[in-house]
Amino acid sequence: MRHLKLLIAWCMLLNLVIGSDLASAEPAQIVHINLGHSILSLNGPWRFHVGDDQRWASPDFDDSIWETVDLTPAPGAHDGDVGLPGYVAGWSLRGHAQYIGYAWYRMKVTVDSDGLAPLALAGPTLVDSTYELYVDGKRLGGSGVFSDATPTVFGVRPSVFPLPSSSSAGTQTYVIAFRVWMDPIDAAQDSGGIHVAPNIGDVNDIDLLHQAQWLQTFKGYVVDAIEPFAFFLLALLVFALIACRTDDDFRWLATALLLLALLRVNQVLFYWTDFLSLRGYDVATAVILKPLNLAAWTLAWRHWFRVNKYPRLHYAIGALTLAYMLFALMGRPWFATEADHGLKSVANTAVEAARLAFAALYLWIIGIGVFRSPKPSSYLAALGAVLVGVGIFATEVSALGVPGIWFPYGTGVSRGQYAYAVFIPLLFLLIAMRWVGYARRK
Questions:
Q1: What is the pLDDT of residues 178-196, one digit of tens each?
Q2: Considering only CA atoms, which of 385, 394, 441, 383 is closest in space to residue 417?
Q3: Helix 290-304 × helix 341-372 angle, to 10°
Q4: CATH of domain 220-441
Q5: Where are the domains of the chain?
Q6: Across 77-181, where does the E strand assignment appear?
Q7: Which pairing describes strands 119-122 and 193-194: parallel, antiparallel, or unpaired?
Q8: Could you confirm whether domain 39-197 is CATH 2.60.120.260?
């Protein structure tokens, strides 16, 4: 037995030696992996200058005395709206507070290329407020219309710009210049200029990035497209109630649902299409639809809760709505000149007062309705009114310290979107309950 164990040990040692020789005689194949960036984010440093001069697009222009701007984002940074990644603060926090107008970004880029794969540039996905792109002095496109002294601003969406390429392999050099216009509507604490850096790379990878950027933009506003459709369907149900010739007046509820659908879909039209310009969106939202929504929903809940003791309340609500619309127009940043700053301040204060008056009236109607009819359907209707109020009184709710937006899975979802998501099935239930009640009485 002892000799057997010794023999086994020698066999194992011999096997290790032979295996080692075979391994050294036939070395494993070495795979060379070259990991690199097919897409590079152009974070900077950029040369930056406020003002406007078309000579700044020229590749021969000397921008050495311009200030430098770094667009490198903090880890995990994103915008406060839909969750676009790579967000950085604008020029308002970079030494140019309260500046509104034109500014330029310039960068000289050299790219080592084999000359076979075409290159492209993915434009910035978030800019205050619009831009033109120049490469080697030639305009490649942009997101707005710059034919007038004041550009027409449309929503900045993901864009791809093919870059000129040489026919031979080697180093290609580009002088990239962005001409940026910031509209007074976008003035805020961290506004101004490019917030998400552009990217450069081969055209196929840039196209994949472009698809990912569009997916993020789609996810950010898809709820604003779905909820208006639900409001429209609810309005059709309300019209069906009206057709039943009931004693209740549901015309204002149907009107309020349609106006709220228009208010919500406005965002989709601006950020997904060129149907609305920034100023068109601003007029439609701030001057027309917001005051009309406050008036329509106040009247809708007044009739729902049957608060009919004050017949002249309609006239008071109408006068308040007209005053709101007039002062909202006077307070828009583009309406008056800089010399009328005092007028704008008075107008904005009047708008705040009108909104507070609507909020007080809105809550009073809810309270009277529940007090006069303390039953489960009244409490459900009061909950529905509060949920709508969370959306249409967003400014006032934010003043109470309630966060305005959350980012589940990296996509921004507003407080109003959550509230409307609960309100839609609740109102359907309330309409069904009224319908059943009418059927029983008949």
A1: 999 999 999 988 999 999 9
A2: 394
A3: 20
A4: 1.20.1070
A5: 39-197, 220-441
A6: 102-113, 119-122, 127-128, 130-135, 138-142, 144-145, 152-153, 160-162, 170-181
A7: unpaired
A8: yes
